[in-house]
Amino acid sequence: MSKEAAKFELVASNNEQMLRALCCVEEEREIVEKEERTLRSELTLLRSKLVSCEAELQQYKKKIKELNDELDTETKGEPSLLAEVEKLQRDVDQARTRAQLTTHSSDVLHSQVKSLETAIADKKRQVERLVAEMKEANLQSLAAAPTDELKLLLE
């Protein structure tokens, strides 16, 4: 019996070791199941983010296409815009040239007006001098003339 008891003890000891090993395996299985659930949740979240990113990518592609279309439209209109700018530049240059000519003409006319004003002032002084000389000559002739002639002239 002691052999059998030893055998039973050995079997019990083996069973106990197996049971402990099984408990460890069971704990590992639970940990693995938790990790699996966590990974599945993360995978679901990542799939959701992927769908969101793909939708956002489609929006960006659409926006890029719209911007390319706008750029094409602007590029097609650019030559006419450049031609208009060049025409406006020529118009500005012509207007500037006309303004310079007008300014020059104005300066010349202003100078001529000053010259004429100076000449008129000189002539006016000459006329005033001549009038003064004539008055002086008249006074001298009146002073030299006899009084009878004066009376006759005054009548």
UniProtKB/TrEMBL annotation:
It comes from the Eukaryota. This is Uncharacterized protein. It comes from Rhodnius prolixus.
